[in-house]
Amino acid sequence: MRLTKVEIRRVVLPMVRSFETGFGTIDEKETIITKLYTSDGLVGYGESSATIAPIYNHETSYSCFYVQENYIAPQVVGKNFETVEDFKDAYSNIVGHPIARTGMECAFWHLIAQRDNKSLKQLFGGVKDEIPVGEGVGISASTKQTLTDVKRIVDAGYSRVKVKIAPGRDLEILHAVRARFPGIPLTVDANGSYRYDRDVEILRAFDQFNLGMLEQPFASDDICGHARLHRQIKTPICLDESIESLNDAHTAVGLDACQVINIKPGRVGGMLESIAIHDLAAQHDISVWCGGMGETGIGRAFNIAFASKANCRYPADMSPYSFFYKEDLVEDSFVVKDNGCIDVRTTPGLGYRVNDKSIEALTTKKVIVKS
Ligand code: OSB
Ligand code: MG
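^ Those are the sequences you sent over. The predicted structure of the assembly is below.
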């Protein structure tokens, strides 16, 4: 397939609620939508869903746009690629910037899906017809508010509830949630806000709450700290921010740092890397699940297909667009069924109808890179 043009758009999504995490508050959203055009008339869509400020990882929506426009698009436009591996090789000189690379790579997967008349599920080797999903509760000003948020998620039938925690916003909340909802599948996510040297005792106290997992207690570069903690608590440790690549997953396996890995395709630089980490984890009896970064229906299409793989064994983070945003960028957004699951689409291509009108209306900046 010969790429004739790359179109990059910054799309601003009005939010319906803000979301507080251990790394900061998300109350504004810009996502980057990338379109690849071929000489045969195909158009592939991808999404880079970074935060506006560099608070989750080093990337921002601005950096994704910048890196795609100046360093990725010029290296792929005007060239022929038949496989995703070849496509990715063309910009393998770019260091870091996984979220920027993901939007590009996903747009190319979308082209392949159209060319080969296959669904994303088929391309990624998915095996499930539906995937269970959970929803997250942000850190809130009061424990009472947290209980209200948890109740809403339980009532809506989600497969598990994940509560965001941070130092000083933990034991009281967990006691209250467990007292009110003794049996619900419950996990917690610290987004790296604790420190091994300071907080081990508090984290050990989490064992009393029967948590499905404790996600990323320590900083992303502290895989060793997670390995030490793993030996001292019963609650399974899940790594999220620490795993930015297949090599990081090798490190975590080698140090026995976790029992679970949250794979966010954006965080690890795309679907090929996600699949490689999924497979490595399976060989070492580590379960994975698909996280989210507040993608619209475009980015979620790739995540849902990935989440249908066999070793994705826990509910995905896949809140419907309406949890965060006023509108979606696809016309036929997924729904969470009464059983807490989303159907995995098998339609060839993306599986969803892109809403070009919404994209156009919400675009605040656009560039076209041509050969
Ligand atoms: O902490 O998982 C996170 C969004 C952007 C960056 C980091 C995170 C998030 C979310 C979104 O929590 C959850 C979702 O996509 O449903
Ligand atoms: Mg997380």
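The chain has 14 helices and 15 strands. The two ends are 14 Å apart (CA to CA).

Shout if you want it in another format.
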